[in-house]
Design brief:
Length: 135
């Protein structure tokens, strides 16, 4: 049944945007056959449109939870309130494996009506640092 060797990764999200809070983050751990969270230049799925327009994650959760190529789906929020405010950080863990090595995540830039930040099908590694743009 494949290689089940797992690795738990601690993920720290820092909000360095000026006066821009972020909605709770949708997170999925999956394999290469899972659906794309987004494709640049393509129309968004209903789930991505929901998160970009209202911060809601219900449609993305339903879409990813029903896919056999997805191992884990969860939603993480800021440290004190659901929003991750400018200057704050939030920490969570994800468990990846050889069978499910990819992470996708998305959150709404709250002070907009259709902007989101996200990563799509990324292999996260210990001590990895990245800057995630808004789309």
């Amino acid at each position: 049944n494949g290689n089940n060797k797992e690795m738990e990764l601690e993920v720290t999200l820092y909000n360095v945007a000026y006066r821009q809070p972020f909605s709770p983050f949708f997170i999925a751990v999956h394999n290469e056959y899972a659906p794309d969270l987004f494709s640049l230049g393509m129309p968004p799925t209903d789930g991505l449109a929901e998160i970009a327009e209202s911060g809601g994650t219900d449609l993305l959760q339903t879409m990813f939870e029903s896919d056999s190529n997805v191992q884990t789906v969860k939603v993480e929020q800021g440290p004190e309130i659901p929003l991750l405010r400018a200057g704050e950080k939030t920490v969570f863990t994800v468990t990846v494996s050889c069978d499910y090595p990819y992470v996708s995540l998305a959150s709404m830039a709250v002070n907009t009506n259709d902007c989101f930040v996200g990563i799509n099908h990324m292999m996260l590694m210990p001590d990895m640092v990245m800057t995630v743009p808004g789309y």
